[in-house]
Amino acid sequence: MFSRIQWKDKKGMKELVTKCLMENNTNFIRLLVDSGFPLHDYVDDSLLAKLYKADFDSNDPRVQIFKNYVFTLTK
C-alpha cells in the first residue's frame, strides 16, 4: 500500500505518530510500521518520557495494578 513512499521529512508525521501513540492507536501504528515507516527515527527520549508519564497518569486499571505492585516493592 505505502511501499513507494519516502517517509523521511514528511510534514506532520512526527505530530501524527505522537498523537497515535498518545491515543494508543496501535492498529494505525502497526499499519505504518508494516508499510515500512521507520518508527525508530521518530521516537526519542522525550517522546518516550511523555508516553510513560501519560500512561502512568491515566485512569487505566492496568496502571493501577502496576502502581500497586511498585508500592509493595518500595515498602
TrEMBL record:
**Protein name (database record):** TRPM-like domain-containing protein
TRPM-like domain ranges (all copies): 5-54
Q: Provide the species name.
A: Hymenolepis diminuta (Rat tapeworm)
- Listed InterPro entries: TRPM-like (IPR057366)
